[in-house]
Amino acid sequence: MNINNQFIITGGPGVGKTALLNALSSDGFRIVPEAARTIIREQMETDGDALPWKNKRLYTDKMIAASILDYNRIIDSCSHEICFFDRGIPDAVCYAEMIGYRLSNDVVEQIQSCPYNTHVFILPPWKEIYETDSERKQDWEEAQQTYIHMRNMYKRLGYEPIIVPKGSIEERKEFVQSFIAKNGELR
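Structure (tokenized):
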């Protein structure tokens, strides 16, 4: 298993992660979509309770389980190529902490067995592009706080957050690829 090829792209809501990931995908990189959005869509379609504005703990449990499942599915099939995760398992851990939800020791052990590359690309809040929608209901202040919590959580877990500067999608994509190439991880 080569975790040096498994990169997380994260940040608060509405910072351009999906657009950046789509651009990286267009360049041939493998992308793992964000589990949270899928869960929200499924719960909304089925009138479910596991939503961040309804049952936050159930939502967190589902998000962690789906993220671990995605990680294990991808890590086995993606060991020799660069792979980008739209958020990582630590994002769900951060969310749990933000809502005051203490995770069980079993879940913490599962999470610790899922390492990524130590460099984590984090996109800072950007008010000019921030928008809410039916799945993203956080206001601007909450979006900013989420970014701060994410950055701090990744540091506490031993990762090195690499701040992706604001700019065009092309500039951001170039920044990520250049950073990886300079560190000898892009082939």
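Residues 1 and 79 are 6 Å apart (CA to CA). The longest helix spans residues 56-77.
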